[in-house]
TrEMBL record:
Catalyzes the attachment of glycine to tRNA(Gly). It comes from Candidatus Vogelbacteria bacterium CG22_combo_CG10-13_8_21_14_all_37_9. One of its GO terms (biological process) is diadenosine tetraphosphate biosynthetic process. This is Glycine--tRNA ligase. Residues 7-356 form the Aminoacyl-transfer RNA synthetases class-II family profile domain. One of its GO terms (cellular component) is microvesicle.
């Protein structure tokens, strides 16, 4: 068990709000549970994490194809995939205060409910977390987590559609299109980043469990005989991505998911868990989905979804390895891994030790004094020079004393601050301050571009 320390979550939540990373959604109206907005720095951080993922898993490989499928899909997709029947969590209601909870999250004995098995063992039921009453529960029921809406003006059942609860199904339904357009050879994968929606019974723990989320998913198509080998390769690839974005290695753990807990489509799943302040919980999943999805879509759609192997002259449905990464949980794990408190120059500070490639702002440029026009003009010219390479990831700040400006940048995780002082006016050199150590070095303005390019 990991130690729970919700203090550090509160610090992150407060920093995210104060500094413009993450805001509660529609806050001026009291917010909306399970929905968050990414502010100016949050959206840069999130885009960096998604771009690194896309670069690593799509652009840097020759066996991957990108996709951006629609969120609304034909409802038959969810019949075939099993989500209409089985994408459900156990729900209990306290008869006294009428609060509703996800049964397994408050200690209900629900291990077998997902499989529709009811046991005869007698269990001690938990107290209601809201009103503390005991023995006032209704029998748990399964609650389908897909959001429903209707298409067009008709309101009958034929108009019902669902917001996708996973991005994966768009990949399966476009499998034949990608085969026909590109004729890829096995093994190959299709990758997608996009929104998914889940009507979670109890959204909680900041952006850990939300109702509107983003996923980065890969369906990697393989021959059945090769699945074990590919499963292992993807297992390593997940760790490589985590290392690249600066998620603390010692906080990541693998959990072999048991038969009872695995999703209906999976023959083997490993959860990558992270030590969050609220306990050790899932960060990502890696599943061997077999040929479950393509086989069911082939049956339901009456379309031939076989792959044709030109060498062996065989037609068959490929098997699938699926690494699935939640974007919000990635952001949270990166923030928690980067958060530090220390003392610098005799002052307490807190800062985000982001990997430079992940940091929303890479460089801040300061004139030493705001009221010296020569310094401000020179600082503006350095800013414009560096902006050519770092557009959107560099800021100019002349507000407040220099110490305060350094602290502000430390808190948002800016790796380098460039200060233009009186020596700059004489010899065209500036100081470059390192966020983590506070050390400063003097560099010529002409060296800065190369220095940052190399450091990034
Ligand atoms: N296609 C497989 C799939 O969707 P999942 O384990 O249900 O599997 C994959 O979800 C990942 O999506 C999770 O590991 C997590 O990172 C993220 N995720 C799922 N539900 C989430 C939620 N309510 N809030 C935030 N992230 C979530």
């Amino acid at each position: 068990m990991t130690e729970k320390n919700n203090d550090s979550l509160e610090k992150i939540v407060s920093l995210c709000k104060r500094r413009g990373f993450i805001y509660p959604s529609s806050e001026i109206y009291g917010g909306l549970a399970g929905a968050f907005d990414f502010g100016p720095l949050g959206v840069e951080l999130k885009n960096n994490l998604k771009n690194i993922w896309w670069q690593m898993f799509v652009h840097d490989r020759e066996d991957m194809y990108g996709l951006d499928a629609s969120i609304l899909m034909n409802s038959k997709v969810w019949e075939a995939s099993g989500h209409l029947a089985g994408f459900a969590d156990p729900l209990v209601e306290c008869q006294k205060c009428h609060s509703k909870f996800r049964a397994d999250q408050i200690g209900f004995p629900v291990e077998n409910m997902k499989k529709g098995v009811s046991g005869s063992t007698v269990f001690i039921l938990p107290r209601c977390p809201n009103c503390n009453s005991v023995d006032d529960w209704n029998a748990p029921t399964m609650f389908n987590m897909m959001f429903q809406t209707t298409i067009g003006a008709e309101k009958d059942s034929s108009a019902t559609v669902y917001l996708r609860p996973e991005t994966a199904q768009g990949i399966f339904t476009d499998f034949k299109n990608v085969l026909d357009s590109f004729h890829p050879k096995l093994p190959f994968g299709i990758a997608q980043i996009g929104k998914a929606f889940r009507n979670e019974i109890s959204p909680r723990d900041f952006v850990f469990r939300v109702r509107e989320l983003e996923q980065m998913e890969i369906e990697y198509f393989v021959r059945e005989a090769d699945w074990v080998q590919h499963f292992e390769t993807w297992r390593q690839a997940v760790h490589e991505y985590l290392a690249l974005i600066g998620v603390a290695k010692e906080k990541v753990h693998e959990l072999e998911v048991s038969d009872e807990e695995r999703a209906h489509y999976s023959k083997r799943t490993i959860d990558f868990e992270f030590d969050y302040p609220f306990g050790r919980k899932e960060l990502y999943g890696l599943a061997y989905r077999t040929d479950y999805d393509l086989t069911h879509h082939q049956e339901k759609s009456n379309q031939d979804l076989n792959y044709y192997d030109e060498e062996t002259k065989e037609h068959f449905i490929p098997h699938v390895i699926e690494p699935s990464f939640g974007v919000e949980r990635t952001v949270l794990a990166v923030l928690l891994s980067a958060y530090r408190e220390d003392e610098l120059g005799g002052e307490k500070r807190n800062y985000l030790a982001f990997e430079p490639r992940v940091a929303p702002i890479k460089v801040a440029v300061f004139p030493l004094l705001k009221n010296k026009p020569d310094l401000v003009t020179k600082a503006r010219s350095v800013f414009s020079l560096l902006k050519k390479d770092l557009a959107g990831q560099i800021i100019f700040d002349d507000n407040g004393n220099i110490g305060k400006r350094y602290r502000r940048q430390d808190e948002i995780g800016t790796p380098w601050c460039v200060t233009i002082d009186f020596d700059t006016l004489d010899n065209d050199t500036v100081t470059v301050r390192d966020r983590d150590t506070g050390e400063q070095r003097r560099l010529a303005i002409s060296e800065l571009g190369t220095y940052f390019r190399q450091s990034l």
